[in-house]
Amino acid sequence: MRYLVTGGAGFVGSHVVLALLDAGHEVAVLDDLSTGHRAAVPPDVPFFLVDLASQEATAGVMAQGPWDGVLHFAALSRVGDSVRRPLHYLRRNYLTTLNLIEACVAHGVKKFVFSSTAALFGGTERTGLISEAASVDPGSPYGESKFMIERVLHWADRIYGMRSACLRYFNAAGADPAGRAGEDHRPETHLIPLTIEAALGMRPTLKLFGLDYPTMDGSCIRDYVHVADIAEAHLRALEQMEQGSICYNIGTGCGYSNLEVIASVERVSGRSVPWEPAPRREGDPVRLVADPARLHADTGWTPRFAGLDMIVETALRWRQAHPQGYAD
């Protein structure tokens, strides 16, 4: 099959590109490189330097089809930043994706895989596992923008017959087990790479946002899922879409607190992590842990990297091999 991956120079997108290539598919990448890295895209993969805000440029790429499907990762994705700049996030994420969906409909694309988020569930405190039947209550403009797009895809299927897969990942982490790709945000905001960099002495004391949550150790709890397992879920979703549009929560069903992440990094690296408490960040819920039962039942997907130490080990190995990230 021939697939277009938008945001394919970013963290999750670049790992999905590798999974598609490993499965024998033909892949092209569209990215504006505002947060992604050209070096994250294999040199033999066609690359379009395009801003999806441009309808003309977006349509120009779609005209170079036919495309058997589009996998869409390009988005602004920092929760705290979206609280500070809500209208910017809502406008940017929604309108750029609307441009892409319109171009897909116009050029007869039949499959659209959407990188959605667990932030759809961040506005309500939840104690158990979160299934696809859970009420949607975004706790941030970022999460709201993703839900708006899910609704557009619902109507694109109902009226134009373009099938979609809305994949709501929880906390993507880790790195390609073969060392071909890793996590390199500028600035970095994700806990595992921040903790690893603190352990390696690459940044000053780690700030832990919030130790007053109603959890066992006072820090908030997240479901960390390996980025290679997320990529595998995309391959399973493309197959499942033969039956119609789908929506899945992608996680492991196990939650780890922020302090447990620090302990894991110390265990795997053999180094201590300097850290200090800081006030809570706006938009951060207490607990987000997925119920992956539907994805497993429908596709047979099961995470290969099910333990936190396994996830941390691949992330640590990649960072040690690439101290400057993709700048190396």
TrEMBL record:
Transmembrane region(s): none
Keyword Isomerase recorded: yes
Isomerase among keywords: yes
Catalytic activity: UDP-alpha-D-glucose = UDP-alpha-D-galactose
Pathway: Carbohydrate metabolism; galactose metabolism
Enzyme class label: isomerase
Cofactor: NAD(+)
Coiled coil: none
Signal peptide: none
Origin: domain of life: Bacteria
CDD domains in the record: UDP_G4E_1_SDR_e
Quaternary structure and partners: Homodimer.
NCBIfam families, per the entry: galE (TIGR01179)
Name of the protein in question: UDP-glucose 4-epimerase
Organism expressing this protein natively: Parasaccharibacter apium
Taxonomic lineage: Bacteria, Pseudomonadati, Pseudomonadota, Alphaproteobacteria, Acetobacterales
Gene name linked to the record: galE
